[in-house]
Amino acid sequence: MASREARTLTQRELNRALLARQLLLERAKTPIPKALERMGGLQAQYAPSMYIGLWSRVEGLERDAVTRGLERRSIVQGSMMRTTIHLVSKRDYWPFVVGIRRTQREWWLRTHGRGINPDELEEVLGQRLGPSGLWLDLVRVPPSGTWEHRRADLYALAEKWVGPENASEDEGIELLVRRYLGAFGPAPVADIANWARLKPPMVRSALERLELRRFLNEEGKELVDLPRAPLPNPDTPAPARFLPVWDATLLVHARRTGILPERYRPRVFNVRTPHSVNTFLVDGQVAGTWRYEKRHIKLEPFGRLPKKARAELDEEAERLAAFHA
Q1: Terminal CA-to-CA distance of the chain, rounded, Å?
Q2: For residues 192 and 195, what is the distance between their CA atoms, to the nearest angstrom?
Q3: Quick check: 222 and 1 in contact, CB under 8 A?
Q4: Angle subtended by helix axes 47-55 and 307-324, to nearest 10
Q5: Are strands 279-282 and 241-243 parallel, antiparallel or unpaired?
Q6: Cys staple from 43: which of 20, 134, 178, 246, with CB 3.0 to 4.6 Å?
Q7: Tens digits of residue pLDDT in 260-287
């Protein structure tokens, strides 16, 4: 239970904490693998989204730098949290995969009601990655999954591409918990479990081994956090930022931060756009969508934008258009 003296954090404070930890308050001057570790990885089903997601967070990022990182294997793409393709540092790959492996397999068998035999696995591998990634540790390798070659059609065995497995399940779960809190905290146990698709008791067991600080949200629910993780002043200005599809900050595990106002959620996630849409942030919240068209970034605000915010967005849009070119 949280201490009676635990500090209560407002949604605005949680919003600024998320932005700071996701490198969206200030771009980081850091190598790509380190940025990914600070972000808790990056969803990468659509290859260009990971380039844009890093561009919005890393100072002076060039597209070629991401592709070189993939080719040099300092960053790795593979099926991880929630059985979706993520981009992570080489150092984080095996702990993440081993940490979630058992629960991912149990989930698949429970939802599909049966196992998978070798003949089915061979058929799946001949068509798409699908559930085979739960029994074979595969990674997506360049040129597949790059800006220039966006299809996910080239895979390799992880132990050949990344190196031998080097983590236990407990070590993996502990790192997942650390990465989540460092990237999205402070957070309740349920949100950590949702993000990683781990069972809450597994998360609690890992938390018992960590030094933590504890807070409450405005509803009185306990939030846990790492001791020295950023908690900016809620009045900290938040610059205009562009987010790609699949950006994990907008998913339900980060709902508590208000980065995606609930009135706009159906406009970002719905049956026609289950993958979400490109969005932009004004004052730390989604304020509209964007698309790249005819060498320009076209903005579609959800409402009237203040003049200063529009000017800042236009400047950022020019830089993003140049990144696309």
Answers
A1: 53
A2: 5
A3: yes
A4: 130
A5: antiparallel
A6: 246
A7: 999 999 999 987 877 789 999 999 999 9
The rounded distance, in Å, linking the Cα atoms of 24 and 232 is 12
Per the CB < 8 A criterion, the answer to whether 59 and 258 are in contact is no
Tokens describing residue 252: 């339900």
Round the average pLDDT of the chain to a whole number and report it.
91
- pLDDT value of residue 115: 54
Q: Show Cβ contacts of residue 244 under 8 Å, excluding neighbours closer than 6 positions.
A: 46, 48, 49, 50, 52, 53, 278
HSE-CB for 44 with a 13 A CA cutoff: 30
Which of 265, 242, 319 is CA-nearest to residue 49?
Answer: 242
Structure confidence by residue, pLDDT tens digits, 231-266: 999 999 999 999 999 899 999 999 999 999 999 999
Give the CA count within 13 Å in the CB-facing half-sphere of 2. 19
Helix or strand (DSSP H, E) at 97: helix 90-112
- How does 153-192 read in b/e, with b if 16+ C-beta sit within 10 Å? eebeebeebbeeeebeeeebbbbbbbbbbbbbbbbbbebb
Burial (CB < 10 A; 0-12, 13-18, 19+), residue 280, is buried
Rounded CA-CA distance 250/59 in Å is 22
Instruction: Match 């915010």 to its residue by tokens.
Output: 309
In this predicted model, what pLDDT tens digit does every residue of 100-153 receive, in sequence order? 998 888 876 777 655 555 555 545 444 445 555 667 899 999 999 999 998 877
Q: What is the mean pLDDT of residues 164-181?
A: 97
Sheet holding 75-79, edge to edge: 42-43, 85-89, 75-79, 138-140, 155-157
Token pair recorded at residue 154: 């080239």
Q: What phi and psi values does residue 180 have, to the nearest 5 degrees?
A: -65, -50
